[in-house]
Amino acid sequence: MRIRVGVVGGGSWGTTVAHLAAHNVPTTLWARRPETAAEVERHHTNSRYLPGHDLHPALRASSDLAEVVGTADVVVMGVPSHAYRETLEEVGRHLRAWVPVVSLTKGFEQGTRLRMSEIAAGVLPGHPFAVLTGPNLAKEILAGHAAASVVATPDPRVAEHLQGVFTNELFRVYTNPDVIGCEVAGALKNVIAIASGMADGLGAGDNTRAAVITRGLGELSRLGVALGGSEATFSGLAGMGDLIATCVSPQSRNRHVGEQLGRGRTIEEVIAEMDMVAEGVKAASVVMELAREHGLDLPICSEVEAVCHRGRPATEAYRGLLRRGAGAELHG
Questions:
Q1: How confident is the model over 292-296, as a mean pLDDT?
Q2: What DSSP string runs through 95-132?
Q3: 129-133 and 74-77: which strand pairing?
Q4: What is the predicted pLDDT for the residue at 328?
Q5: pTM above threshold 0.70
Q6: Hey, which residues does 149 pair with through a beta bridge?
Q7: For 159-171, what is the HEC assignment?
Q8: Looking at the domain 180-331, which fold is it?
Q9: pLDDT tens figures, 105-121
């Protein structure tokens, strides 16, 4: 019997992953807004988040969470980190035993500083858990451009089955057992992308952007290893790949936030006009708490946190980075 996939979250990336899965297996998307679900179901579009793009004609949609989750053999969580626990608890009321949960969320839970896999372990003990992550810009995938991703789970059998769910001719999925590394990379790259966007907003050149990305990868790797991730993960798709795409693409929400900050706008102004969540803003404070706890120096993340949460101007943040002494490159 073919497996059935339920995707929870009707935003741009949740919808895109549902579109990918629909190429291979029966897939239903849950959207909180009934009008979004109705549009996907009837017209195979999601004009709120993905205007101008058609979705797979076999993709179904519903605003009834019990209907979507109760019959699913794989559940994909595509909701922001601030709604992850509450939504997962509701999912758990309808989920059958041992159904795998796949997370698309790149961030930490505020307050607890937990990764999404840690939340899932507490809310849904006994369910296999995986992360789908990588340099995956939703609109490019829907436009038919080739892309690659990583499915991270410690169980190789689950990983192999999930590969078959999401892989198609233009979307290649690799496996990686390092859930911690992939989750940390996904959260920190959003913070570094804000810094990259600030450089663009300030009118800096490609040399500056390259330095921010490279040194940012070093910060990402140091914290990731300290939290238990594998160093090799951070040079792969979940680390360097996702970091590059998020730091340079005009489609990146976090880069957009940084660019607007670099142009002198306040974080409140930028967030107020956005229809989607920029996870890096919330993650920045958690990242610095973890850095202090582990005795790590993360200067780029520190400056981003100061701009996003303590009112520091982006111009002053970059002056702060330039005032720092340059030590040995390979020792942070």
A1: 97
A2: PPTT--EEE---S--TTT---HHHHHHHHSTTS-EEEE
A3: unpaired
A4: 66
A5: yes
A6: 173
A7: HHHHHHHHCECCE
A8: N-(1-d-carboxylethyl)-l-norvaline Dehydrogenase; domain 2 (1.10.1040)
A9: 999 999 999 999 999 99
Q: For strand 5-8 and strand 74-77, is the pairing parallel, antiparallel, or unpaired?
A: parallel
Q: Where in the chain is the domain with CATH 1.10.1040.10?
A: 180-331
**What does 199-257 look like in DSSP terms, one character per residue?**
HHHTT--HHHHHHHHHHHHHHHHHHHHHTT--GGGGGSIIIIIHHHHHHH-TT-HHHHH
Task: Say how far residue 275 (Cα) sits from the centre of its chain.
Answer: 16
pLDDT above 70 coverage of the chain, percent: 96
Sequence ranges of the chain with CATH classification 3.40.50.720: 5-177
Considering Cα of 18, then 20, then 23, then 24, what sign does the dihedral take?
Answer: negative
Instruction: Give residue-wise pLDDT tens across range 203-219.
Output: 998 999 999 999 999 99
Q: Cα-flanking dihedrals φ and ψ of residue 132, to 5°?
A: -110, 120
**Judging by DSSP bridges, how do beta strands 27-30 and 5-8 pair with one another?**
parallel
Active-site position among 106, 139, 189, 282:
189
Residue 231 CA: distances (Å) to CA of 8, 34, 113, 243, 317 = 31, 43, 21, 15, 28
DSSP letters spanning 259-293:
HHHHTT--HHHHHHT-SS--HHHHHHHHHHHHHHH
* Per-residue pLDDT reduced to its tens digit, 118-161: 999 999 999 999 999 999 999 999 999 999 999 999 999 999 99
CATH number, span 5-177:
3.40.50.720
- How far is Cα 245 from Cα 252, in angstroms, rounded to an integer? 8
Structure token pair of residue 190: 């959003």
Residue 323 has pLDDT above 80, yes or no: no
Tally of residues, the chain: 332
Q: Six-digit token pair at 140?
A: 């490019």
Average pLDDT of the residues in 306-310: 94
Residue 274: pLDDT band by 50, 70, 90 thresholds?
confident
Helix (H, G, I), strand (E, B) or coil at 15: helix
189 noted as active-site residue: yes
